[in-house]
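Narrative summary of target 7.
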Amino acid sequence: MTVQKQLGFWIAALVVFVLFLWLFSGILLPFVAGLALAYFLDPVAGRLQRLGFGRVGATLLILGVFVIVFVLFLVLAAPLVVREITAFLQTLPSYVTQLQRLAHEHGGPFLELFGGEEAGRDVEGSIRDMVGQTTGYLLGLIGSILAGGQTLLSLFSLVIVTPIIAFYLLIDWHKMVATVDSWLPLRYRETIRGLAREIDTALAGFVRGQASLCLILGSYYAIALSLIGLNFGALIGITAGFLSIIPYVGSFTGLLLSVGVAIVQFWPDYYWVLITLAIFVSGQIVEGNILQPKMLGDSVGVHPVWLMFALFAFGSLFGFLGLLMAVPLAAAVGVLMRFGLRRYLASSYYRGDTESAARVGEARDD
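Modeled conformation, tokenized:
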């Protein structure tokens, strides 16, 4: 098969895949969630099998524990989280108004000193417009994700259908992998297997490591902000931890929210504002120097900018389903792009000679 035919085949496969997601995005959520759940629980099932459990028994035990924990969360924690989010959104306009007033009172004379009274009014109006547009954009994004995912049906599917799909996938996981492996073209089988292993390493390493990091950071921020008495401290801390799936975004978002609330709540006692700032600075120091090197290392290969683009792009295209698929697809595309770059750098087209043709064959074995 020529290079042109191979390229045409993979482009056609990509078009079919995107078209399939677009057509069935309304019903794919429980299937994608079940597949993700089975993927991440398969190592646990393997360990239980080595301890003497059968595959069915190990699967039932794992999913039983997962369902119990998930139901307890929905019953006990979800109502509190929803109530806190509602109260925060209702209070947000008053916080913004007070921040604008404080900025005008304490920053207005400074601005007028350099640009006059008109400059101060212009800056204040720009800040007000920016905050209003940002708030409206975030609320609109959340609403579109929830509406695009058919919220009630999707939540019902996640609770009821997803464990059933994950159960059947977990039982036959190794059979399915072996079947797909048997379909690979013999000439490129080892290359495809190598790419699959690299994607698995990148995806598993990033998601498992970043999930542990998010849990640790979210717990630290929530406990620390609650101990200093910050309004909505637990909610801001949990939000910062959850958004830490994108490196630096969670801590930066939590920092802005917490410092803004602290200024409104504690001003003019700036001591507590500095403590709030110190909580996030210390969290970033621990994350950058201890948690990330230990949990992620240097072999993950998912750049924060690429991950952020994938989350926004797939979230806007496919709603909540796209958010679920953004991380694995970003990891897979990153691996494939690095493989393509290696092939290109080893090709005669890049080097401009004929001797490098042998290096192309070597690159296939990478």
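The chain has 13 helices and no strands.
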